[in-house]
Amino acid sequence: MVKGGAAGGPRVGLRKFVRGVLAATAVVSLAAPGAGQAQQAVLNLYSARHYQTDEALYRNFTEQTGIRINRIELGDEPLLQRLKSEGANSPADVVLLVDAARLWRAQIDGLFQPIDSKVLNERIPANLRANDGSWYGFSTRARVIVYDKAKVKPQEVDTYEKLAEPLNKGRVCTRSGSHPYMLSLIGAMVERSGEAATEQWARGMVANMARPPRGGDTDQIKSVASGECGVALTNSYYWVRLMRSTDPKDREVVDKVGFVWPNQATSGVHVNVAGGGVARHAPNRANAIRFLEYLSSPHAQAYFADGNNEWPVVKGVQVNNPALVSLGKYKAEDVPISSIGKGQIAAQRILDRVGYR
């Protein structure tokens, strides 16, 4: 028997009790989806890709499949921390990350579940995916060199190694050495040349800095244009983004800055990936695999190139991006992407020893 209080009697007390039970049930069902909810046509996407141009990519997937995308966008590190804290209760189905260093970190932290997709294995080259099927690269970008055309000759800065030579003292600008873009580059150098040679290069880079490392890749390009730096490192899609800009200030930057494919006569330019995998506790696993396979489709691959200035990883995809195409063909390094992530540990040790902030 439910006893009423002085203000409402038994009926009011009963109504409050029922409302409380219903509210508690609703909270439980939201916090812990059951089998019925897991089979709905939804996909919970955790993405560190913060590009507005990806909106059309997601919209097209829903139009093709009827699968609605619930999306959470965070920076790579906050996203990984969220996945760890959620644990087995995470609603994430697919996790998209930028850079091999972050993909490898998610892999060793057990945040992906390996899958065996015939579609993905046939379309994605083996050197652009994890060897256990835990993640796949869907687009690539290169770590290129830009220079001040008024002060620097391209042959003085056409390799990564030359940036650390005395000729370029006081000219070099980069973002933080501990940023994943730099860690992956240095990790690849460790894989290719060994830790001792890479440390010697890093010491030369520190000695040649025009200013302490700071800012993002676009900041490096603009610092070259302003004369603050003579040469800088940047990911290729930042450069192409400026090339495609209609802003007069961006056009002025492009006019003042030269572009170099580094190491074309030797090891090739460092290439990295943006990619993703199925989350370890994905409630909608089939939808997750379907989404990853969609990202390897000709339409999605072309959109990575045309929308965000990245190169497709699937052969034969038609690119309709004149600025990207104008960069021409290049020789890429042959270091497997999956091994670059592992090299970041040695890379960080080197950075710490030489004071590369």
Brief summary:
With 357 residues, this protein is α/β, with parallel strands linked by helices.
Q: What is the element layout, followed by pairings?
A:
Layout: H1 9-31, H2 35-38, E1 42-47, H3 54-65, E2 68-73, H4 76-86, E3 94-98, H5 100-108, H6 118-123, E4 136-148, E5 172-173, H7 180-193, H8 195-207, H9 217-226, E6 231-235, H10 236-244, H11 248-256, E7 257-260, E8 270-278, H12 285-295, H13 298-308, E9 311-312, H14 322-326, H15 337-354
Parallel strand pairs: 1-2, 1-3, 5-6
Antiparallel strand pairs: 3-8, 4-6, 4-7, 4-8, 4-9
Structure explained in plain terms:
With 357 residues, this protein is an alpha/beta fold. The protein is built from 15 helices and nine strands. The chain has helices at 9-31, 35-38, 54-65, 76-86, 100-108, 118-123, 180-193, 195-207, 217-226, 236-244, 248-256, 285-295, 298-308, 322-326, 337-354; strands spanning 42-47, 68-73, 94-98, 136-148, 172-173, 231-235, 257-260, 270-278, 311-312. The longest helix is centred in the N-terminal third of the chain and has 23 residues, at 9-31. Residues 1-39 have low confidence and may be disordered.
